[in-house]
Amino acid sequence: MNYLGFSEAKVLETVGHLNQLLANYQVYYQNLRNYHWNVNGKHFFDLHIQFENLYNEAKVSIDEIAERILTLRMSPMSTLTEYLKSSQIKEKSTASPKEMVESILQNHKILIVNMRELLSVAADSDDEGTIDLVAGFLGSIEKKSWMLDAWLQE
User: Fold this and answer.
1) I want to staple 100 with a disulfide (CB 3.0 to 4.6 A). Which of 14, 35, 64, 81 is the partner?
2) CA dihedral 31, 37, 43, 47 (to 10 degrees)
């Protein structure tokens, strides 16, 4: 850890939050895949594409989170058992298009809280690399949440 100059205690705290974010993102990702495969009805074309865009972005975020943990010389969670046990986001079954969007917004709320907590911990450690990474995720999720919420409006 010496090459980055962080104390081990601070890294352990940051990595704990990063692993939480990783677990949450993994279940979120699978929920999006489920919705992408199972959406139907008059909103099929717009939501099918949106869900695919969201899960493709989540896939990239998952890899970047795991690689940040590795950069900090720690091990990312890597099994479905760990993800399901640790995630605050729960698996969702198929639902109506409106319920799918509402569920994604609820997932976003959990991710946003997780990210804000992580940003605070990383700031206390002067971990600008983690701050930069997570701040980008946060801005993107907030914007996507606004768009999904607009879709729900009558």
Assistant:
1) 35
2) 50
Count how many Cα atoms sit within 13 Å of the Cα of residue 67 in the half-sphere of its side chain: 9
Strands (E), the chain: none
pLDDT number for residue 2: 64
Instruction: Please provide residue 125's backbone torsions phi and psi, each rounded to the nearest 5 degrees.
Output: -100, 0
* Ranges of the chain whose pLDDT falls below 50: 1
pLDDT digits (tens, 9 = 90+) for 81-103: 999 999 999 999 878 999 999 99
Q: How far apart are CA 148 and CA 142, in angstroms?
A: 10
| Residue of 102, 104, 108 lying closest to 141 (CA atoms) | 108
- Residue 14: enclosing H or E segment and its boundaries? helix 8-38
User: What type of residue is 19?
Assistant: N
CA distances from 25 to 9, 68, 96 (A): 24, 14, 22
- Report the pLDDT value the prediction gives residue 3, as an integer from 0 to 100: 78
The token pair that represents 4 in the structure block? 């980055």
Residue-range domains of the chain with CATH:
8-152 (1.20.1260.10)
User: How many other C-beta atoms lie within 10 A of the C-beta of residue 93?
Assistant: 8
